[in-house]
Amino acid sequence: MNEAAQSSPTPATTDAHGGNGQRRRVLLIIATVFAVIAIGWLILWWLVFSLRETTDDAYVAGDQIGVSAQTAGTVVAVQADDTQRVESGQVLVSLDPTDNLVALTRAASTLSLTVRQIRQQSQQAAQVDAQVSSRQLELQQAEAELARRQPLLATQAIAAEELQRASTAVEVARAALLAASRQARAAHAPLEGASLDNAPAVLEARAAFVQAWIAARRSTVRAPSSGYVARRNVQVGQRVVPGQTLLTIIPLDKLWIDANFKEGQLRALRLGQSARVTADLYGNGVTFHGRVAGMSAGTGAAFSLLPAQNATGNWIKVVQRVPVRIVLQGDELARNPLRIGLSTHVNVDTSARTGEVLASTAAAAAVATTDIYAGDYQAAQRAADALIRGEPLITP
Fold this sequence. Notes:
Blueprint: H1 2-7, H2 11-47, E1 52-62, E2 65-68, E3 73-78, E4 85-86, E5 91-95, H3 98-154, H4 160-188, H5 200-217, E6 220-222, E7 227-230, E8 239-240, E9 245-250, E10 255-262, E11 274-279, E12 288-295, E13 321-328, H6 330-335, E14 343-349, H7 374-388
Antiparallel strand pairs: 1-10, 1-14, 2-9, 3-5, 3-8, 4-7, 5-6, 7-9, 10-13, 11-12, 11-14, 12-13
Helix pairs in contact: 3-4, 3-5, 5-7
């Protein structure tokens, strides 16, 4: 009885061994879960996160088109204000055109007078040409008289004095022809090799007229591009001078991101890589898609107003950042407009690393263009042509 009692386990001993085994299984399961999570995170980092470069030091940038006065004048009307949208070619500011119109009238008068003078010179040249023809006939007549009298002298039909007078008449006629020819050359000199339109005096007066016509036309300041008005600093009654900035136009449909990546992140960035951008304005609910379009040629500190002077004794190394331009898609900007200066978060997919680090070819097309001034010169030329034909002045 005693041996049987000693050999059989007690309930307390059985519970202790069972509890330790169950505890080990729980710990093993927990360790396995953490190991799977760690391995999954390692795989995720290796396949995804290691191929991404992110930064929140990124801001929206865009063109800031300064609209300037092209001629001097007093502002009489301001037709656009801050936050308003304007279209390309729309009149923004009107200047008092009085001074420019007076200058245009003076230039038109000078051109008309010059044309009349050239026409008068042409008529005078034609008149001198007629005189040359008359002198040639007189010379021929004198030579004929001399030739007719020379045989008569041998037969003593005429006196020697009469033959001498005939010879003198030939010399006088020849001198008169020479003088008339020189006068003809002098009269044709201002018109030599040129028509009325190409006469040097007409071209000079025409250029002054075209300049005055364009100045009168540009008494109205027009928008070179479509966009939104910002920083208007012009008022009615203000006297402006050429080159003075009156306001700024921001085309919000052509924005980009200046993402300032750390210098260590640049080794994986290439041109053409895709990027995802989220703006603080919309949060994570709106994602913009773009691509890496270029990288700055220097760090932000190198282009600052007061560059850092590292050749000092108290130098401290600071991680530098290089601006990287991310071009956004226009349709996404149309659906969710951004503003210049907004904060963004940029995530660049660096899995494709076959692209260039820096652009190797020059730009093939213009970055920005405007055609609102293209017709001014042609319109001025048409007005000059009409004035030369004797038609009334065509004002801008």
